């Protein structure tokens, strides 16, 4: 931590800027990744071809196995630069297949590197069905005792169906740059008007959907800097202390009650600033400029 | 979308990997997959591009590349989302570098 600033900068590899393949290489133990259905045997989307849109060989998602901190994991990485990481039929089938494999193979965890706006609308029902199958597969995998860890720090964040999928996972590791929500800012503005939500107001978008807000409200388990090594270390640490509780309705009722109370507590608030003030933060306006460690310290000091 | 197919003669490549992939099908970008081909002194290229009407430019850019690098015995597939000729040349060199283990 005491290295000169220029050295620190040189050592950082932005997770946000990286492609999915380079994220995979930087997350796992060196040389341990083995891809299932690599590009040379995978198939581009037939639906996009019909529409006259070039597909990607891997249909925008990489699945495989590897080691993370010496533990065997299965891994999913969405490529946000291809069609906004959106889930089409083949893309979804690869994810579901990997999750089902996890139930058989019992790795230490499934790491799900989410970078997606949700359903690939070009593929209509096939994409919607794929999302619902992923949701079911995530829950089945967790019910089999295999934790599923979502990593959210890509340019497309986790929106739409993939926002739901992320919250169905055992835990989320997120950077400030990552965003997590249901409807994306542009969608809200289109449907409800700019008075409801101004998607051009980037600072507002991050105060409502960004990693810092999600960390303060407890929607993600860990907040990390936008650095592949930080995502890696945080995921290793998280796995060390994580056990997947046996599925049951009492835990779900407790969680539902907590969320209902939260909705009532922050009802009518339109900006993260208001929420953070209501949580007891003395100077909410300073949150946006804080580094990761300072924000984690501030959260520890907040009233329960 | 436009489908383009080309074939060039070139000195044989010396592969170090079974296949190599470079780039992403994102705006202004493309992905390229190099695999072993059938003829040792020929390179076949098949392109799917979102930009129609640029066949002659593709042919010139790849012919130039094939004349300067040993790419014989390869089958190159490209999915393009509007990459400029400079990006195309860069990606070709990257992919060939990975395919031959940096031996070029």
Care to give the gist of this entry?
The complex is a heterodimer of chains A (304) and B (104). Chain A is α/β, with parallel strands linked by helices and 304 residues long. Chain A is built from 13 helices and 7 strands.
What can you see in these coordinates?
The complex is a heterodimer of chains A (304) and B (104). Chain A has helices spanning 5-11, 20-27, 46-50, 89-105, 124-143, 161-168, 185-192, 202-209, 211-216, 228-240, 249-265, 272-278, 292-301; strands at 34-36, 61-68, 71-78, 109-114, 148-152, 171-175, 222-224. Chain A has 304 residues and is an alpha/beta fold. Chain A has a domain at 12-180 and 220-247: 2-enoyl-CoA Hydratase, Chain A, domain 1 (Alpha-Beta Complex), CATH 3.90.226. In chain A, strand 2 (61-68) and strand 3 form a beta hairpin. Chain A is globular, with a radius of gyration of 19 Å. With 104 residues, chain B is an alpha+beta fold. Chain B has a single domain, classed as Ribosomal Protein S5, domain 2 (2-Layer Sandwich). In chain B, strand 4, helix 1 and strand 5 (74-80) form a beta-alpha-beta unit. In chain B, helix 1 (55-68) runs parallel beside helix 2 (85-99). Chain B is globular, with a radius of gyration of 12 Å.
């Amino acid at each position: 931590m005491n290295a000169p600033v220029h050295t620190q900068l040189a050592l950082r590899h932005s997770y946000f800027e990286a492609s999915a393949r380079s994220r995979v290489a930087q997350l796992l133990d060196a040389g341990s990744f083995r891809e299932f259905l690599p590009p040379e045997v995978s198939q581009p989307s037939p639906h996009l071809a019909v529409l006259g849109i070039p597909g990607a060989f891997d249909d925008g998602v990489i699945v495989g196995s590897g080691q993370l901190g010496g533990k065997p994991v299965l891994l999913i990485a969405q490529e946000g630069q291809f069609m906004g990481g959106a889930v089409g039929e083949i893309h979804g089938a690869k994810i579901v297949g990997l999750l089902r494999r996890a139930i058989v193979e019992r790795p230490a965890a499934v790491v799900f590197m989410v970078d997606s706006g949700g359903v690939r609308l070009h593929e209509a029902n096939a994409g919607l069905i794929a999302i619902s199958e992923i949701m079911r597969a995530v829950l089945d995998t967790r019910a089999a005792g295999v934790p599923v860890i979502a990593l959210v720090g890509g340019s497309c964040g986790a929106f739409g169906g993939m926002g739901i999928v992320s919250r169905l996972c055992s835990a989320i590791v997120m950077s400030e740059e990552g965003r997590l929500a249901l409807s994306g800012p542009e969608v809200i503005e289109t449907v409800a008007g700019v008075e409801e939500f101004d998607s051009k107001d980037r600072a507002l978008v991050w105060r409502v959907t960004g990693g810092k807000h999600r960390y303060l409200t407890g929607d993600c388990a860990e907040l990390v800097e936008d650095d592949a090594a930080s995502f890696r270390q945080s995921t290793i640490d998280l796995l060390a202390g994580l056990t997947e509780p046996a599925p049951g309705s009492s835990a779900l009722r407790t969680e539902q009650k907590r969320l209902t109370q939260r909705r009532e507590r922050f009802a009518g608030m339109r900006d993260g600033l208001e929420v953070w003030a209501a949580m007891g933060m003395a100077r909410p306006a300073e949150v946006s400029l804080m580094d990761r460690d300072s924000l984690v310290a501030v959260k520890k000091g907040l009233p329960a | 979308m436009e489908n383009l197919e080309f074939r060039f003669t070139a000195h044989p490549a010396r592969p170090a990997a079974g296949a190599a992939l470079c780039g992403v099908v994102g705006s202004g970008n493309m992905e390229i997959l190099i695999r072993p081909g059938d003829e040792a002194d020929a390179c076949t290229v098949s392109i799917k591009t979102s930009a129609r009407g640029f066949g002659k430019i593709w042919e010139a850019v790849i012919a130039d590349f094939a004349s300067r690098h040993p790419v014989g015995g390869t089958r190159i597939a490209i999915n393009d989302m509007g990459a400029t000729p400079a990006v195309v040349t860069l990606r070709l060199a990257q992919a060939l570098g990975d395919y031959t283990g940096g031996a070029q």
